């Protein structure tokens, strides 16, 4: 049997495992997330939890074992190197101009509606555009189709129109400003009434605007939006999973996730931290609305800690745990591979596959949320200063929970494949490349089971949260 035929057969086996996992996950509906203070919760699984978790973890483990059987470097490279390129200079220019206008008008709408419109989250265009349009749907477009943010970004358009470039960006900063800003915004989503009070969200958007425009003016828009701006990094890294990639000459159509194997995607420790923050913030937003998360928060508040501090400690502590687990896995990878490559370089190359996991997590958390509130967003955009008091919402069918499970599992399976590809690029020996993957696969299986467990739990309102 040829290597390609064997690959097709093994892919079919993996898809079979995924189907079994989807069947075991019957009864799951919308996953929990903090922004879904605008929407409903989830129900419990209809099969024993241990079986559900073991099946999900087994799917990722089985896909890893089957992937390891593919050792032909030409076959591996064909997936990641194959691309259809197209130069569309005029279309790119016109599209960029059109999206830029939409971005500026959208930013103006957000501020006007937040100040002059209703101060109720479910009908406010400010809240719905931010969370349904940006955090949910636009992010889904970024990793399923392609990244539209460079053309849409209104803050960059404003910064480019101002005098800029007064200082050189310190190399020691890396992308740490974006990491700190991302974690800060995730914390503020919890402790501030951003999804229920439009004026509070406007205040945060004003703070962000001052922060990012100031950074772009001081260091130049090109540098700042490449390294220091959290939204730009958010969309760029999520967009690297997409099949449509921007090139110097236009666009290229690639297999999903193939960009993740390239060495120029994650190039510093701070970018590793941002990737881990993308994975952790979704796990965090799911944890704090589960019964176990609510019990933990109430217990810590019960010993005298302020609720805002409790949420901050859980956010930072969980991120630190993810950081530690990741670098321990990299250390074990280096030991098993017996390589001269540095720990830091291995950490850079193997962080990018985790973006596939982040995309799967995001889909599980936000696709139902975005679709159910999509009509409300349209109603608010039609009349932003006087939206209907009873906005339209879609009721998702019971089978929609399968989409969550599929998102999580397919994200992990794609991450396993990309990690397999990176290992064969880094290490010359086949056994060396295969051995090096074990620690990271263990981490991925663990992440899978944790995320599936969180999705399987009934949701509760996070305690001590305004609104």
Can you walk me through this structure?
The protein has 467 residues and is an all-alpha fold. The protein is built from 18 helices and three strands. It has helices spanning 3-24, 49-68, 73-81, 89-116, 125-144, 149-152, 154-160, 176-191, 198-219, 221-227, 230-239, 269-287, 291-302, 307-337, 343-351, 354-382, 401-426, 430-456; strands at 83-86, 244-246, 251-254. It has a three-stranded antiparallel β-sheet with strand order 1-3-2. α2 runs antiparallel to α18 (430-456) and α8 packs parallel to α12 (269-287). Residues 6-36 and 40-47 have low confidence and may be disordered.
Strand order in the sheet with the most strands:
1-3-2
Largest sheet: 3 strands, antiparallel
Quickly count the helices: 18
Q: How do the helices and strands follow one another from N- to C-terminus?
A: HHHEHHHHHHHHEEHHHHHHH
Proportion of residues in extended strands: under 5%
| Low-pLDDT segments | 6-36, 40-47
Ends distance: 61 Å
Averaging pLDDT over every residue, what do you get?
Answer: 80
DSSP, total strands: 3
What structural category characterises the helix and strand content? mainly alpha
């Amino acid at each position: 049997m040829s290597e390609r035929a064997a690959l097709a057969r093994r892919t079919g086996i993996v898809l079979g495992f995924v189907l079994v996992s989807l069947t075991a996950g019957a009864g799951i509906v919308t996953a929990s997330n903090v922004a879904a203070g605008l929407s409903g919760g989830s129900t419990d699984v209809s099969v024993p939890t241990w079986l559900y978790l073991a099946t999900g973890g087994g799917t990722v483990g089985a896909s890893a074992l089957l992937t390891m059987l593919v050792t032909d470097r030409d076959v591996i490279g064909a997936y990641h190197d194959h691309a259809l390129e197209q130069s569309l200079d005029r279309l790119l220019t016109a599209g960029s101009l059109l999206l830029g206008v939409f971005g500026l008008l959208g930013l103006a709408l957000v501020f006007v509606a937040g100040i002059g419109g209703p101060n109720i989250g479910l009908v406010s265009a400010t809240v719905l555009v931010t969370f349904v349009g940006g955090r949910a749907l636009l992010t889904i477009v970024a990793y399923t189709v392609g990244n539209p943010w460079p053309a849409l970004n209104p803050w960059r358009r404003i910064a480019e129109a101002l005098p800029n470039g007064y200082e050189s960006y310190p190399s020691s900063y890396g992308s740490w400003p974006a990491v700190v800003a991302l974690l800060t915004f995730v914390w503020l989503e919890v402790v501030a009434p951003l999804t229920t009070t439009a004026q509070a969200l406007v205040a945060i958007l004003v703070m962000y605007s001052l922060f990012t425009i100031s950074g772009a003016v001081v260091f130049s828009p090109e540098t700042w939006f490449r390294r220091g701006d959290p939204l730009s990094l958010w969309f760029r890294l999520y967009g690297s999973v997409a099949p449509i990639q921007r090139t110097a000459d236009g666009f290229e159509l690639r297999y999903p996730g193939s960009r993740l194997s390239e060495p120029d995607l994650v190039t510093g420790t701070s970018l590793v931290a941002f990737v881990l923050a993308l994975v952790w913030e979704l796990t965090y937003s799911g944890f704090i609305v589960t019964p176990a998360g609510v019990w933990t928060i109430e217990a810590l508040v019960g010993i005298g800690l302020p609720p805002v501090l409790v949420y901050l400690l859980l956010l930072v502590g969980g991120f630190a745990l993810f950081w530690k687990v990741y670098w321990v896995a990299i250390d074990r990878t280096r030991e098993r591979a017996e390589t001269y490559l540095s720990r830091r370089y291995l950490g850079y190359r193997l962080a990018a596959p985790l973006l596939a996991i982040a995309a799967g997590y995001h889909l599980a958390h936000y696709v139902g949320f975005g679709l159910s509130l999509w009509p409300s967003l349209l109603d608010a955009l039609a009349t932003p200063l006087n939206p209907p008091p009873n906005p339209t919402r879609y009721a998702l069918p019971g089978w929609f929970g399968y989409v969550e499970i599929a998102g999580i599992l397919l994200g992990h399976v794609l991450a396993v494949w990309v990690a397999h590809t990176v290992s064969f690029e880094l290490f010359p020996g086949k056994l060396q490349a295969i051995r090096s993957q074990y620690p990271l696969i263990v981490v991925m299986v663990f992440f899978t089971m944790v995320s599936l467990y969180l999705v399987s739990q009934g949701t509760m309102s996070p305690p001590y949260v305004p609104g």
